[in-house]
Write a sequence for this structure.
């Protein structure tokens, strides 16, 4: 164990003990960029890995879990966004997943029974006191508290520090991981000091060697600042009316210049801007897909999601180098 740099709280030590971690750092589920190699690297660096499976087929989900298990003994979770049906949950269980983390909704008692029968630990993302009270009634093993600084789809409606205070107040001895805008040692310290048991990083892990994000998207994360992020419902195709934070791009600029019209009246709405060279899918402007390595075309016109911690993203390191540096940085 090498956590001499910080005096970790009892909450952090408990979280690290439950999940057998070296550091109280959790990978955020970040859709396409977060495939098996990133989760493996995060686990092998002593943190908790993530496999977002909401939009991954059951067969592919099974394979990804098996791949991670074959390359690490570390802990990782499968993530399901409950605005969508968790089609891959049964295959994830069959593949031996040990932790499942839900966001944007609460699991049904049917799902919870299934997890408990298989001794699977459960995390739930919340963003307010009320959301936390509802989630705690389901007896989760941990909560994630998201703040509005987060990149990607933002369930939160208030800044992380305030949301965390509310959630910690009701969570009592259930560990709470803080998520949104965390990319450097200073922000890790800040939220651990505020009482979070762990911190969650999304955008920071997207800009690493092992992430499957498109190189132009990784470079944009390095080159951009927090003020280049926009928070809106612009990318309405695929997940209508869900707020998200992303880098300002051509799609957002066109929509803004036209006065933010609703779907059906947006400029360039029927343009095909990009495609996936592996499965041939075509992406229209305003689709919510993330630019990944198999995306071709005007990739940055899709969803270059980014949180407000990107000022601290200045390179594209390996995960191992990143974690070592974050832990020793002053
Ligand atoms: C590219 C990208 C994709 C995301 N996809 C998901 C997802 O599939 N499920 C989910 O619960 N959250 C998703 N999020 C939100 C993250 O889980 C997390 O809340 C966010 O990354 C934290 O903020 P940060 O990026 O500033 O670290 C995504 C975020 C990004 C940047």
């Amino acid at each position: 164990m090498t956590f001499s740099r910080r005096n970790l709280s009892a909450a952090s030590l408990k979280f690290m003990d439950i999940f057998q971690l070296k550091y109280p750092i959790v990978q955020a589920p970040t859709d396409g960029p977060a495939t098996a190699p990133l989760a493996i690297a995060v686990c092998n660096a002593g943190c908790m890995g993530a496999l977002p499976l909401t939009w991954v087929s059951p067969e592919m989900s099974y394979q990804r879990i098996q791949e991670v298990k074959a390359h690490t003994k570390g802990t990782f979770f499968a993530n399901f966004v409950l605005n969508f049906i968790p089609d891959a949950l049964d295959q994830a269980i069959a593949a031996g997943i040990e932790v499942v983390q839900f966001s944007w909704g609460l699991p049904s008692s049917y799902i919870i029974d299934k997890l408990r029968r298989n001794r699977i630990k459960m995390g739930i993302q919340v963003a307010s006191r009320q959301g936390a009270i509802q989630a705690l009634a389901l007896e989760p093993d941990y909560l994630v508290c998201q703040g509005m600084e987060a990149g990607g789809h933002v369930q939160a409606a208030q800044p992380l520090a305030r949301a965390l205070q509310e959630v910690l107040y009701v969570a009592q001895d259930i560990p709470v991981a803080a998520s949104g805008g965390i990319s450097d040692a200073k922000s890790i310290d800040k939220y651990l000091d505020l009482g979070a048991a762990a911190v969650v990083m999304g955008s920071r892990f997207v800009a690493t060697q092992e992430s499957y994000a498109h190189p132009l998207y990784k470079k944009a994360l390095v080159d951009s600042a927090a003020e280049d992020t926009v928070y809106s419902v612009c990318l309405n195709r695929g997940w209508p009316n869900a707020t998200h934070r992303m880098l300002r791009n051509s799609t957002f600029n066109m929509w803004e210049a036209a006065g933010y019209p609703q779907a059906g009246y947006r400029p360039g709405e029927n343009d095909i801007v990009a495609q996936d060279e592996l499965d041939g899918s075509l992406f229209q402007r305003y689709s919510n897909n993330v630019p990944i390595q198999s995306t071709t075309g005007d990739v940055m016109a899709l969803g270059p999601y980014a949180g407000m911690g990107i000022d601290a993203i200045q390179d594209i390191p390996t995960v191992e180098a990143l974690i070592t540096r974050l832990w020793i940085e002053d």
Confidence is low (pLDDT under 50) at residues 1-5.
